[in-house]
Amino acid sequence: MTSDVNAVEPSAHEGSSEESNRCGYVAIVGRPNVGKSTLLNHLIGQKLSITSRRPQTTRHQVLGIRTEQGVQTVFVDTPGMHKVQKKAINRYMNKAATSALTGIDAVVFVVDRLTWNEEDDLVLEKVKGARCPVILAINKVDKISDKAKLMPHLETLSGKMDFHAVIPISAQHGHNLKELDDLITHLIPEGIHHFPEDQLTDRSSRFLAAELVREKVMRQLGDELPYEITVEIEEFKHEVRPKGPLLTISALILVERAGQKAIVIGDRGTRLKQIGQDARKDMEQMFDSKVMLHLWVKVKAGWSDDERALKSLGYDHS
Ligand code: GDP
Ligand code: MG
User: How distant, in Å, are the alpha carbons of 77, 178, 230, 267, 278 from that of 272?
Assistant: First the structure.
């Protein structure tokens, strides 16, 4: 595999210049759908964390690593924090979100425009225990039509805790991201780099490929499917050909019911074909290689509420 988004264990890594002397972890937290993954992608400058209009798209904790001018910033994108913990998958997600707040140097707490609900309160309670500076980022301000409402709202939110800063942003349109980034960078302490300079994530190429397929399924299906789908990569083969590198990827889309399988496949397979085309395009960009992608859909009943099945699929976060 030639991809440089390969999994490497974190290890003390000597920087190449004398400037390589700062390293820190920044957690991006907030309830589902506020724009955490979109923000991470913009800060890193590459598509790492999948996004969609549907809540709960991000199931795993993903590290996005950026090393610039001697400063290594390790962003932790967390699955949303939830109130309801009925199913095993929700319990897993909550655990992953809470553990993201240990050993970090700064928190970016993302909220959605002028809304504040009890899920935000829950996140607030968790970040209060973080013992590091917390920046409150009010996202999607591009969608606020009455800008006059923003100032009083900023003031109300500022009173919720002693925030390091409160900043309105648009993760999607890049508004105020430079300012946010400067605030973050100032909070990165001195320290040896934990990752090689060119490493972008702690996740394997297989994992990223699976997440891309999952993103496309969610995008295509909108509200037609509950979030209980998962993707397994069965084959990930790299070949060097005279015409250039070729990556052959076979992915299995697991759904809960036969009806969902039909929905994912679509009329005469048109939907699955679109999912495949979109995923392949992103993969070619991500892996810098031509990609041959094979997709299958299979019914795996009840997986989201079966701890053992979750483990076998790699959700064995502890
Ligand atoms: P997460 O669940 O917090 O990771 O949220 P995502 O990053 O997946 O974003 C959820 C949805 O909000 C997606 O449809 C994004 O395109 C959208 N979104 C994120 N940031 C912005 C923004 O600044 N403006 C607007 N209008 N939409 C945004
Ligand atoms: Mg996300």
Answer: 28, 38, 15, 9, 10
